[in-house]
Amino acid sequence: MENFQYFTPTKVVFGKKTELQTGTLIQEYGCKKVMVHYGSGSVKKSGLLERICKSLEEAGIAYITLGGVVPNPHLSLVYKGIELCKKEGVDFILAVGGGSVIDSAKAIGYGVTNPGDVWDFYEKKGSPKACLPIGVVLTIAAAGSEMSNSSVITKEEGGIKRGCNSDLARPRFAVMNPELTMTLPEYQTMSGCVDIMMHTIERYLNRADNMELTDGISEHLLCTVMKNAKILLHHPENYNARAEVMWAGSLSHNGLTGCGTDGGDWATHQIEHELGGMFDVAHGAGLAAVWGSWARYVVSEGTERFARLAVRVLGVSETGSDMEKALKGIEAMEEFFRSVNMPISLGQLGIKPTEEQMREMAEKCTFWGQRTIGCVKTLAQEDVYQIYRKAAL
């Protein structure tokens, strides 16, 4: 077992109509002015934004709004948000949406409170020393950003997608009403379920001497998401299934499933980030499209962990060698992706990258050959290219 620290300061307010408590929750922090940050017009059409603004007004809290966040959130809007917050004297950011909105809010929070260009933190040129306090009203169960320390932003120029991790940006509270996710399209719901699973699998597949308890939590979380994803495929308004998935999303990425591990692999995420940066694909769907190719490329280096995943989560028989079980597990995972209408190749994802584009993504993924990724098997630039190539077949 590895030494670890577990830090989860986010207050969770979970259940029906909890968004009506937003104003009261923000009152606790004594802020003077809030920026309500959101994505598309859906929060307006549903009436959610109006309900939240009314809650702020009833609590006597001044606010401004900034919408326009897109999937794979853009740096240009982050810059706009930083400028607006400074101009208006904003001292609290309320993110109303999913992972993209929350990640954008965190980046704005860094930019307001630190000198220099906020993008430098995402390029690993220093670390933030402060962040505006963030609150969340969650509308999409997927990224887990509502309780995590991570933020991922895309710089439009060059299509570069990068992450910054800091406990300074962990939200102060997260309001989670599963009813708010019921209007999501099927593709977005299933993509979110895959994202939740991958946050867990990235930590689960590692080279450490793991804790049995942490493994058990991870395994049950994965089984829970898989079960409820299939329920939501046919019954998208099932409240209990929505609630199970929403809570799993938070637990998958708040550090719980990494306690006692070496931190996990994360190569699949790094590989997908370049797909998102270049082709603007849905994150969870992109993860599904490359995971099988990555898994087969590295399975010989992590056979025992893959075999355990296969038996404990994917229903593979305990008979046979670890490699046999591992390969059957990879097939079973891909079959699950297919069963919830998720892609298992780049073609099924709807993209056909050229040889030049795959080389470029591999180059960017490894910071132009300056870093390796992964821990199950250490991957250099050529390895990453080969994984893209296999995923494109």
Write a short abstract of this structure.
With 393 residues, this protein is α/β, with parallel strands linked by helices.
Overview of this protein structure:
The protein is an alpha/beta fold. The chain has 2 domains: 170 residues, Rossmann fold (3-Layer(aba) Sandwich), CATH 3.40.50.1970; 207 residues, Dehydroquinate synthase-like - alpha domain (Dehydroquinate synthase-like, alpha domain), CATH 1.20.1090. It is built from 16 helices and 8 strands. A hairpin with a 4-residue loop joins strand 6 and strand 7. The longest helix has 23 residues. The radius of gyration is 20 Å and the shape is globular. The protein starts with 10 loop residues before the first strand and ends with a helix.
**Which CATH C-level class of the largest domain is it?**
Mainly Alpha
Figure out the total of helices: 16
Q: Note the beta-strand portion.
A: 5-15%
Structural class designation: alpha/beta
User: What is the total number of structural domains?
Assistant: 2
Rg: 20 Å
